[in-house]
């Protein structure tokens, strides 16, 4: 109990840390789900307990004093250690499961087919999935590993390349049987093109594809979809031509459900990466999953160009 002679209650330290980080009593109150007056009271309690002024509350934003900064740094360091150890213990009690985040299209067309083989090799491990409808799949305390498209340079993350994305137009046999012959990229301007909305322009769209081949376009025909998954389902149903990414289209091409319209493929500005938080140890289940994914990443794509060799997970 001697520690508590110099350590205020946890709620006091959390209020001090949040106020210092957010530079605002009201923002700290919102984050901790208490009133602003409660935060003010807790800071006063801390200052009286420590016999030092931690904040200049008259400034806007709220400023931390020199003594306050030293104390906040110590509080953050201590809470980080406690949090990491708690997370490690929690993972230990659930060692046979992990949670993976992925965008909707890659989850359905790329990851889920591979999970069957993983489960056959590791039936004792449960893989939970969290999907992102749009944008970057999250990587938080509740997510062990994320499967993301990008350049692999996300802050505070470690990333291993699974595959470089290649893009080429694809269409179903049903659509091609009832449509005009396609011989050149320019011919596609007279066809029904399927468009998927993407806020991130590294997700290649038709305008970029035509520009690559020097084809000028204006008001390209065809319906728009708010995600890649629905667009690909429309292509499979024979509703038009989609831009096929190897991560989501390859298995359908192999099965004869889609045809690639040109031999030429464009390499996207990025690839599919396996991502986890830097300096946060993976659980046994998550490490098994990551090692398996990296070892088998080009097993189903070995006939494609530009494959990356498998590496071991450190």
Please characterize this protein's 3D structure.
With 314 residues, this protein is an alpha/beta fold. It has three domains: 2-92, Arc Repressor Mutant, subunit A (Orthogonal Bundle), CATH 1.10.10.10; 97-164 and 270-295, D-Maltodextrin-Binding Protein, domain 2 (3-Layer(aba) Sandwich), CATH 3.40.190.10; 165-269, D-Maltodextrin-Binding Protein, domain 2 (3-Layer(aba) Sandwich), CATH 3.40.190. Helix content is 39%, strand content 19%. It has ten helices and eleven strands. It has helices at residues 10-22, 25-32, 36-50, 66-92, 104-121, 173-177, 206-212, 228-236, 246-254, 284-295; strands at residues 55-56, 63-64, 97-103, 126-132, 145-150, 157-171, 195-196, 224-225, 242-245, 259-260, 266-277. Strands 3, 4, 5, 6, 9, 10 and 11 form a seven-stranded mixed β-sheet that branches. Strand 3 (97-103), helix 5 and strand 4 (126-132) form a beta-alpha-beta unit. The longest helix is centred in the N-terminal third of the chain and has 27 residues, at 66-92. It is elongated, with a radius of gyration of 26 Å. 29% of the residues are buried.
């Amino acid at each position: 109990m001697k520690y508590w002679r110099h350590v205020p209650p946890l709620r006091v330290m959390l209020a001090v840390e949040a106020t210092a980080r957010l530079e605002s009593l009201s923002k700290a109150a919102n984050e901790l789900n208490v009133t602003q007056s409660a935060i003010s009271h807790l800071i006063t309690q801390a200052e009286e307990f420590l016999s030092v002024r931690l904040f200049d509350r008259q400034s806007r934003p709220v400023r931390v004093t020199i003594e306050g900064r030293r104390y906040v740094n110590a509080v953050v360091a201590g809470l980080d250690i406690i949090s990491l150890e708690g997370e490690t213990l929690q993972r230990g009690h659930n060692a046979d499961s992990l949670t993976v985040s992925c965008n909707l299209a890659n989850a359905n067309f790329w990851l889920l087919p591979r999970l069957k083989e993983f489960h056959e090799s590791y039936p004792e491990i449960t893989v939970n999935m969290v999907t992102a409808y749009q944008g970057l799949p999250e990587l938080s305390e509740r997510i062990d590993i994320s499967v993301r498209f990008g350049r692999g340079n996300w802050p505070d993350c470690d990333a291993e390349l699974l595959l470089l994305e290649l893009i080429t137009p694809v269409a179903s046999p049903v659509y091609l049987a009832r449509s005009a012959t396609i011989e050149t990229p320019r011919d596609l301007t007279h066809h029904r093109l399927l468009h998927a909305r993407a806020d991130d322009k590294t997700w290649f769209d038709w305008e970029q594809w035509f520009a690559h081949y020097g084809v000028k376009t204006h008001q390209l025909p065809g319906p728009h979809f708010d995600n890649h998954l629905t667009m690909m389902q429309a292509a499979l149903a024979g509703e038009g031509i989609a831009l096929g990414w190897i991560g989501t289209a390859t298995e359908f091409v192999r099965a004869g459900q889609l045809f690639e319209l040109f031999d030429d493929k464009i390499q996207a500005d990025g690839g599919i990466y396996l991502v986890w938080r830097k300096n946060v140890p993976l659980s046994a289940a998550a490490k098994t999953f990551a090692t398996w994914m990296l070892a088998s990443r080009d097993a189903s794509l070995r006939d494609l160009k530009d494959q990356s060799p498998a590496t071991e997970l450190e």
